[in-house]
Amino acid sequence: MTEKYVLAVDLGAESGRVMCAGFDGQRIEMTEVHRFSNTPVYANGTLYWDALRLWHNIQLGIRQAAAEHEIASIGVDSWGVNPILLDNNGHLLSNPVHYRDNRTDGAMSWVFERMQRREVYERTGIQFMQMNGLYQLASMVRDNSSQLKAVGTLLSICDLFNYWLTGTKKAEFTMATTMQLCDPRTKDWDRALFEAIGFPLDTLVPIVEPGEPIGTYEGIPVIASAGHDTGAAVVGIPTTTQEYAYLSSGTWSLLGLELDHPVINDAAYEANLTNEGGYAGTIRLLKNIMGLWIAQQCRNTWAEAGRDYSYDDLVRLAQSATPFQAFVDPDVDDFFHVGDMPEKIRAYCRRTGQMPPESDAQMIRTVYESLALKYRLVLEHLIAVSGQSVERLHVIGGGTNNALLCQMTANAIDRPVIAGPAEATALGNAVVQLIAQGELANLAEARAMLAESIDTVTYEPQDSALWIEQAGRLSEQVAATQQ
Ligand code: ADP
Ligand code: LRH
């Protein structure tokens, strides 16, 4: 059978890539066509995404792939939460402001003065995080941004590139939900929320489901994929079974369950769990954990000091260090912004009465152990809130390259970890396109095909009693730091 080729444009917070998926009717094979870094830029005190450089690289990748194969379609996915504003002529009003920029400081309480926190959750089911689109837009209203006088259209990052590719402005559903501006039950914008913050309703464009055609780019059909990278990654889980949880492990750690309905109740609210819209009517009940961002920032700080470690070096360093010396709650606000992460970790340890890690090796071990232990605490919440049992954890994304963290995770959750693929997001993106073209029947068939095509590595839990005891220590510390 001849192969069909589709392109997945996958934009992560650390790197973007154009991947070419070849499907022969039985198996899928992914080739990396072009990878590029996604380096944010400070200008005049504001942190921006470099949208134009990303656009340049996307076109470069597509051109390279099209020179080698006949491309049946293109799909774009990207990191979530970021709104984009266009003027009435369709021009960008500003380079997209990064979700880690401090313009959203204080924006959450500003919103809750206009609509109660519990009601915001009731309407959206989305985890409260200051980076959410809701707070980004609210900060602009609060600060009287001059852009609001000229705004014509609200889009997200993946929508912007779909627009630049095709000339069509549409809001992709999985992405729209991450902004905390949608009702997951009606699958539409929550207009009352826009009214509460005073953001113009006439900026809203129709929401399209993943799988719908958007237009064409140089004759190639562009299909709305699962535009949110986490939505695409979960499509890309190579499984034929139930009773699993997943961990999408990259810049963020997204730990959750796939459900067919949102869980919006007091328990979910208390646990601050999110209900993100997924592919084919699914809902991702998950928790956004700070993730490998902490390791990325340690690495940057050390590189600036002349100690240039690869990710493999970091894993080797962590392996050489002493276990269980200190823990951090990865999700404290301090760790969210760009900065000297080792110093932030030392400050956290001093604050919580722990000996701060001194060497780089001890520091990175603290980061990995803390993440694994936090995964256990979050998994317990997910199980309690959903009532679903979990037999194993599928880890997907770049974090699957970190065998030490995968093993620590299996130990901490006392369940097997199945690691892979690292490029689940691009695979999920491609699969949505293949289903849209009738090459695959549905999500279940696609995942069975992925399970046949993809090699995974299984980590069995070891020394779990010890890890569970340490998770108890972290849990006490989390409770103490939240008081
Ligand atoms: P994003 O999509 O958010 O840009 P990725 O899914 O590409 O992130 O994952 C990137 C992360 O994967 C890196 O920050 C790093 O922590 C981890 N990683 C990548 N390669 C390796 C490696 N060889 N060893 C250990 N960790 C790795
Ligand atoms: C992961 C991710 C995550 C979002 C965050 C902004 O890349 O999309 O799901 O919450 O970035």
TrEMBL record:
<protein>
    <submittedName>
        <fullName>Rhamnulokinase</fullName>
    </submittedName>
</protein>
<dbReference type="GO" id="GO:0019301">
    <property type="term" value="P:rhamnose catabolic process"/>
</dbReference>
<keyword id="KW-0418">Kinase</keyword>
<comment type="similarity">
    <text>Belongs to the FGGY kinase family.</text>
</comment>
<dbReference type="InterPro" id="IPR018485">
    <property type="entry name" value="FGGY_C"/>
</dbReference>
<dbReference type="InterPro" id="IPR043129">
    <property type="entry name" value="ATPase_NBD"/>
</dbReference>
<keyword id="KW-0547">Nucleotide-binding</keyword>
<keyword id="KW-0684">Rhamnose metabolism</keyword>
<dbReference type="Pfam" id="PF02782">
    <property type="entry name" value="FGGY_C"/>
</dbReference>
<dbReference type="InterPro" id="IPR013449">
    <property type="entry name" value="Rhamnulokinase"/>
</dbReference>
<keyword id="KW-0808">Transferase</keyword>
<feature type="domain" description="Carbohydrate kinase FGGY C-terminal">
    <location>
        <begin position="245"/>
        <end position="436"/>
    </location>
</feature>
<dbReference type="GO" id="GO:0008993">
    <property type="term" value="F:rhamnulokinase activity"/>
</dbReference>
<dbReference type="InterPro" id="IPR050406">
    <property type="entry name" value="FGGY_Carb_Kinase"/>
</dbReference>
<feature type="domain" description="Carbohydrate kinase FGGY N-terminal">
    <location>
        <begin position="5"/>
        <end position="236"/>
    </location>
</feature>
<dbReference type="GO" id="GO:0005524">
    <property type="term" value="F:ATP binding"/>
</dbReference>
<dbReference type="InterPro" id="IPR018484">
    <property type="entry name" value="FGGY_N"/>
</dbReference>
<dbReference type="Pfam" id="PF00370">
    <property type="entry name" value="FGGY_N"/>
</dbReference>
<keyword id="KW-0067">ATP-binding</keyword>
